[in-house]
TrEMBL record:
Domain Helicase ATP-binding as annotated: residue spans: 56-234
UniProt protein name: RNA helicase
Reactions performed catalytically: ATP + H2O = ADP + phosphate + H(+)
A Pfam family assignment: DEAD
Transmembrane feature ranges: none
Keywords: ATP-binding, Helicase, Hydrolase, Nucleotide-binding, Nucleus, Ribosome biogenesis, RNA-binding
PANTHER family recorded: ATP-DEPENDENT RNA HELICASE RHLE-RELATED (PTHR47959), DEAD-BOX HELICASE 56 (PTHR47959:SF21)
Entry EC no(s): 3.6.4.13
Known role: ATP-binding RNA helicase involved in the biogenesis of 60S ribosomal subunits and is required for the normal formation of 25S and 5.8S rRNAs.
Domain Helicase C-terminal: 245-473
Residues of the DEAD-box RNA helicase Q domain: 25-53
Lineage, highest ranks first: Eukaryota, Fungi, Dikarya, Ascomycota, Pezizomycotina
Record region (Disordered): 341-373, 580-608
Top-level enzyme category: hydrolase
Amino acid sequence: MTKRKLDENDIPAEAFTPDTQNSASKFADFKLDARLLRAVSKEKFTKPTPVQTEAIPLALAGKDILARADTGSGKTAAYVLPILQALLHRKARAPSEKSISALVLVPTRELAEQIYRVFVSFSLFCAKEVRAVNITQRVSHDVLRSMLADLPDIVIATPGRASQNLSSATFSLEKLTHFVIDEADLVLSYGYEADLDAISKALPRGVQTFLMSATFTAEVETLRGLFCRDPAVLELGGSQEEGTGVSQYVVKCAEDEKFLLTYVIFKLHLIKGKCVIFVSDVDRSYRLKLFLEQFGVRSCVLNSELPVNSRIHVLEEFNKGVYDNIIAADDQEVLGGIASRKASGRDPESEQAVDPQDESDQEPDERAIKKRKLTSKHKDYGISRGIDFKDIACVLNFDLPSSSKSYTHRIGRTARAGKTGMALSFVIPTEQYRKHKATSIASAKHDERVLDRIISRQAKRGKEVKPYQFDMKQVDAFRYRMNDALRAVSQNAVRQARTRELKQELLKSEKLRAHFEENPDELRHLRHDGELRATRVQAHLKHVPEYLMPAKARKGLAANDLGFVGMRKTGENRIRRARMHNRNKGRRADTGARKIDPLRSFNAKGRP
């Protein structure tokens, strides 16, 4: 099939132009079912976003839709509401008819769980009529078969899980009416090409299709030719208002200074609010966590190695505000495209991509490809795309991504839904590369070149990436503490911490769903930001001496924020005081008086 050419912005030439004159000002203008409008109101959705304004009427009219909109612009609700409306309309005519009517495909388990919750939220007041299931969970084949045997109306799955069940009698797509691929530009890069081809052959004719994407790429065009019939192409921006967005800053520093600046940023509270810290791989995430623990800065880790239930729980707790800092290992995004192109028989280093800038950024070495092979079973995992981090104040690119597109997706985690945010990126100058081998990573070799691509790409979007200069004279006062902490975080300590956390999370994950649904009060004991304790404890590092505090930082922090506050109570209880009193007198709490040892009581007279 011949692909249509994309323009210079990766957008199909015949992209649909929104009709802003007929835009709906409220959800009631869509003439949705009253139960859906009630759920929309409960979710505090007051005004449709641009993508919802344009997509929902077309979807209700039965049109196939190919929509590009920024992260956080409301793409999910743009197809969830029309699907629920169509299902309720059909149920009103044939209430006894049961079949799988909608199939939603997503690239990751986390995103599947997220979309499932959106369906549940919007169908809250019609739950008896419409039911959705998420079949990406790690359950036995018998449990999965029983979930599908009841013929749910909506099935959410990854392409891999959906194709596995195509031969099952309980997973019939004969009466499917709606088909959705969310994050369409990402699905093929995860190696689901064969799965999608199998699914396309199983779909009945006349299925209404939604392809939702953050970018228009050659992969999206491939999916369009495979699933759509003359779709309405929507090219829409996000819901951000003028004057809001991401403030982007870059700090050029040495390799070990990444750790130094991170310590200063979090210990002196230079960032207010929740922060996502992106690192290049799993080892790196535990190294940074152990490093921050030395200073009493708590964080939780999110990576492809953890069980899916634990990853979902980490996200839920982070979004609730239980944790302030999350360290995300984005290794799958860096290497995922390489593996998928190799699996399809194409040379990843010689292939010409849609965006030549981004392709030139990625120069994988043999170790990176070998590492990707070892982690290929986690291809359904991704951090910078799809996952919904809520209320993020700052995105810290501790390790710069391998391409400008990856950078765009990362910083899209903040400044969502009209809010403001900040992105801070550490860049290693070429002359500083491999100067501090203990903290060096191979991807830093191309940081400056990737930065040039990022600046160019952001300039086309009307955004500026500004340099940021720390006052290194003041920061250098903390350098010896940073060195103490880094010496403690050895490779062996990282390996032990990684193994220990994986064992803990495996135990938690097995009991997570059943037990904590019955005992919600015990969730507070299941924290993911606890100390790993794989390194030697250096209590003095948790305290910042007042003489080290910069004048501005001292003013910005309240008096009670200075120093380390231990978990121990400052006041002793009555029984403890009595025991200590008796011990000082040379008496035991449970015996009578005895002769005083002057060397113990420091009482020369031998009397109390």
